[in-house]
Design goal:
Elements: H1 3-23, E1 58-60, E2 63-67, E3 71-73, E4 76-78, E5 86-87, E6 92-93, E7 100-101, E8 105-106, E9 109-111, H2 118-137, E10 144-145, E11 156-157, E12 160-164, E13 168-170, E14 174-177, E15 184-188, E16 192-194, E17 200-203, E18 211-215, E19 219-221, E20 226-233, E21 237-239, E22 244-251, E23 254-258, E24 261-263
Parallel strand pairs: 1-4, 1-22, 2-5, 2-23, 3-8, 3-24, 4-9, 10-12, 11-14, 12-15, 13-16, 14-17, 15-18, 16-19, 18-20, 19-21, 20-22, 21-23, 22-24
Antiparallel strand pairs: 6-7
Length: 264
């Protein structure tokens, strides 16, 4: 068999594969976009259970700080750190001593040194946060690995699991596309950075509560950037001036807010 005939046969095979993918777009993982008709087969991984951590819009172990005015809708939890590590909130303790309030928060603030049963509730919630992190980080069979060598601006993500062994940077806006029941897990072994003014946008009915970003390194959301999803962070999460998060911030160290907006 000559070299020319080998190339001709390979060309025929490639044409057959391309034709198959054109006729079966649900199987084409190259573009990271799947037509709406594929949703029943490509609806993403089983949801990550948050347990008691899901009762908090922000949950941290070592501290939560704010540069006023931030606007937070939902409960904040802090454990094992004491309430003195809620900084910038001007806490007002409740009569029962189990919670506190702040003019920057529509919800309750709870810390490990508050009156029982708050400490045990927080311990349970922090343990649930760690369990959720380990679950999400350990999911197998990713849809794609190492997309963009960690630079993922401009991509549209269908439901699935996306994995990086590197840092991930979002220099231009991305889109998460799917229905209200679809799920996503983004596994990031390094840091996660969203550039200032950029956005993680949702389309097709996708919901922030069904999107999990499990990040082993620091998370930094740039000034005025908009982030959608649940952050399960092994270290710190920083929201720079005017940043917005729709979802939850569940961090195993500290959360820093600078005139930020956070809601579930």
């Amino acid at each position: 068999m000559t070299t020319l005939s080998i190339f001709k046969r390979l060309w025929v095979v490639l044409e057959v594969v391309n034709q198959f993918l054109r006729l079966n777009p649900c199987l084409n993982h190259v573009t990271q976009y799947f037509p709406q008709g594929c949703r029943s087969r490509l609806d993403g991984p089983p949801a990550v259970a948050l347990g008691g951590a899901g009762n908090f819009v922000i949950l941290a172990k070592s501290g939560v700080s704010t540069v006023t005015p931030s606007k937070i809708t939902g409960n904040l939890g802090l454990s094992p750190a004491a309430s003195t590590f809620f900084t910038g909130f001007s806490l007002i303790r409740s009569a029962s001593g189990t919670t506190a309030s702040s003019n920057q928060v529509v919800g309750s603030l709870m810390a490990a040194d508050f009156t029982s049963p708050t400490p045990s509730t927080l311990t349970t919630s922090v343990n649930a946060m760690i369990t959720a992190f380990n679950d999400a980080a350990g999911r197998k069979n990713p849809t794609a690995v190492g997309l963009g060598a960690g630079t993922i601006g401009g991509i549209t993500f269908a439901p699935g699991i996306y994995k990086w062994s590197s840092n991930v940077n979002i220099p231009t806006s991305i889109t998460i596309s799917g229905s209200s029941t679809d799920t996503w897990i983004f596994q990031v072994a390094g840091t996660l950075t969203v550039a200032s003014g950029k956005a993680i946008t949702l389309s097709g009915g996708a919901l922030a509560k069904n999107i999990v970003w499990v990040v082993s390194g620091k998370v930094v959301i740039g000034s005025t950037a908009v982030f959608n999803g649940v952050i399960l962070g092994a270290t710190a999460v920083v929201l720079n001036t005017g940043a917005t998060v729709h979802g939850r911030i569940l961090a195993q160290t500290a959360v820093t807010l600078q005139k930020a907006i956070v809601s579930s």
